[in-house]
Design brief:
By secondary structure, this protein is of the alpha+beta class. The protein is built from 13 helices and 13 strands. The chain has a five-stranded antiparallel beta sheet with strand order 8-9-10-7-11. The protein has a four-stranded mixed beta sheet with strand order 3-2-1-5, with no helix packed on it. Strands 4-13 form a two-stranded parallel ribbon. A hairpin with a 2-residue loop joins strand 2 (about 100-105) and strand 3 (about 110-115). Helix 2 (about 10-20) runs antiparallel to helix 3 and helix 8 (about 140-145) packs across helix 12. The protein is globular, with a radius of gyration of 22 Å.
Length: about 300
């Protein structure tokens, strides 16, 4: 895990076994065996059954620090980037017409014309067909939109009357083999002096939670809190959940490498169409896909192309 964060670790040994996934018959057991050897046994120079669990499972608490939070919300960053720009919120793009004479975008609040357009919609939204292109996007781009993995990652924010958990670690990890548990927790109390916890989930657990009521999610979270912090743990006063998977303007969290050639798919998605349609967004950045800074850098790249 530490190796993952270290830019000096050569990527070749990581990439080779991942490439095997693309070939039929490659087994996930082999991949897991490699990842275990690479990230755990080689990292700590010991066999897995020799390693003390405490050090391994506290990695979340140790690596999560104040600098990982944007207290007050991410939109503070966007507000400063948007200064001086004409941003129209609440304007849903419905249809893009592009050709030799330029580009028009039909929206829920009128039609806009331009010589060039930068499309930054999430892959999940492009895949849903909510935005129509006339003429249709080239086949290679459509294939890329179908191939890039769209992940699910949801957060459950719980506000309590008072904090009953330790004040200092900025995050907690919940190690369990039981299915459906929330493995990662952020301690808001440690950074914003608010008695709140954020529980995170990904993949099928995130999708499973999305289908559950707030009450059922809170019950599951409280059961885990009791296991972590003792019987005194109370239920939350208020609960707030993300629903990126069901959000028609997100359709998921961010891109991930599936069984296809992600590098080629990202290049195909990022490439301009007739020099008029340009594409940006996290899933168009080969180095930093899935990250906010990947989205930012891709926007700079598309602006330069324009
Ligand atoms: C739970 C979660 C945790 C994350 N944690 C981190 C992290 O710790 N660090 C990090 O770097 N990144 C993180 N990310 C990823 C980061 O948020 C994304 O990579 C980044 O926001 C992508 O930016 P984007 O501009 O490509 O897409 P988005 O931010 O998704 O922007 C796309 C915009 O298009 C709009 N839109 C969609 N459809 C239409 C339409 N038809 N008409 C008009 N507008 C439309 C949407 O409303 C949205 O505003 C996280 C993401 C999630 C979901």
């Amino acid at each position: 895990m530490k190796a993952l964060l270290d830019p000096h670790v050569p990527l070749e040994p990581i990439v080779q076994p991942l490439l095997q996934q693309r070939f039929p018959g490659a087994s996930h057991e082999r991949l897991l065996a490699f990842l275990r050897a690479y990230y755990l046994e080689n990292e700590y120079a010991a066999d897995l059954d020799e390693l003390g669990a405490y050090e391994i499972v506290t990695v979340v608490a140790k690596k999560t620090k104040e600098r990982d939070y944007l207290v007050g919300g991410y939109d503070r960053l966007l507000a400063s980037l948007a200064q001086g720009l004409d941003v129209r919120l609440g304007t849903v793009a419905l249809r893009v017409r592009h050709g030799a004479s330029g580009v028009t975008v039909e929206t829920s609040r009128g039609t806009f014309a331009a010589s060039k357009l930068v499309v930054t919609l999430p892959v999940g939204v492009l895949r849903s067909g909510a935005l129509e292109f006339e003429p249709a996007l080239p086949e290679e781009k459509q294939a890329a939109i179908a191939q890039i993995g769209v992940g699910d990652f949801e957060k459950v924010v719980m506000l309590f009357d008072e904090a009953f958990w330790p004040a200092t670690p900025h995050g907690f990890g919940f190690a369990s083999t039981a299915s459906g548990t929330l493995p990662l927790w952020l301690n808001v109390q440690a950074v914003a002096d608010t008695p709140a916890l954020v529980a995170m989930s990904s993949g099928h657990v995130a999708r499973e939670l999305s289908a559950m009521s707030d009450h059922a999610v809170a019950e599951r979270a409280v059961a885990q809190m009791r296991a972590m912090f003792g019987a005194a743990s109370k239920g939350p006063r208020a609960i707030l959940r993300t629903r990126w998977h069901d959000d028609p303007f997100a359709r998921g969290a961010y891109s991930y490498p599936g069984p296809h050639d992600l590098d080629a798919a990202i290049s195909a998605l990022a490439s301009p169409v007739d020099g008029r349609l340009l594409f940006a967004g996290e899933a168009t950045d080969r180095a930093w896909y899935s990250f906010a800074h990947g989205a930012y850098l891709s926007g700079v790249r598309a602006a330069n192309e324009a």
